[in-house]
Specification:
With about 190 residues, the chain is α/β, with parallel strands linked by helices. About 30% of the residues lie in helices and about 15% in strands. It has helices spanning about 20-25, 45, 85-95, 105-115, 125-130, 160-170, 170-180, 180-190; strands spanning about 5-15, 70-75, 95-100, 115-120, 135-140, 145, 155.
Amino acid sequence: MQPIKTIRSTTVVMPSTNIDTDQIIPGRFLTTTTKEGLGEQLFADWRYDASGAIRPDFILNQPAAKGCRILVAGRNVGCGSSREHAPWALLDYGFLAVVSTEIADIFRNNSLKNGLLPVIVDEATHAWLLANPGAEVTIDLESTTLTLPDGRSVRFPIASFPRYCLLNGVDELGFLLAKDPAIRAYEARHAQ
């Protein structure tokens, strides 16, 4: 994982509510155990028609979406079944953060464990973001703030351990492995 300190990007706005994990990455693409290439299948049923042709009217297929690192979604994003493939697909596409007023718990936890920052904002900030697609915003993980183009900042909640992991670019296993010398020393001191 790459450390996340500050994300400055224009936004892609998908105002739909209840965007579930099967819409983010349809179940037929869950046969892989690697993350690479899943970005091509992100929102596959919305991005491509039944023949596999690109739907030019879908936001991710439009030139304005290219290079955007922040997805602003409607309320209750990531609901549905638990699948790590959903944050994997978002990350492989290039997103680093998802912003909404409500992010499903399992999806939020899977995102945090895989390096995707879920940002929960208040209704007024969310409404502004939905009404201003393509706005350049700054997400600062160190201060846990999202700043709008006019300078207004709002705080977002994040627990200390996942925040530490994201800031340092380490997952839970990497965190534990880094503690190996201290664990071995403790075990040596308490050996029977």
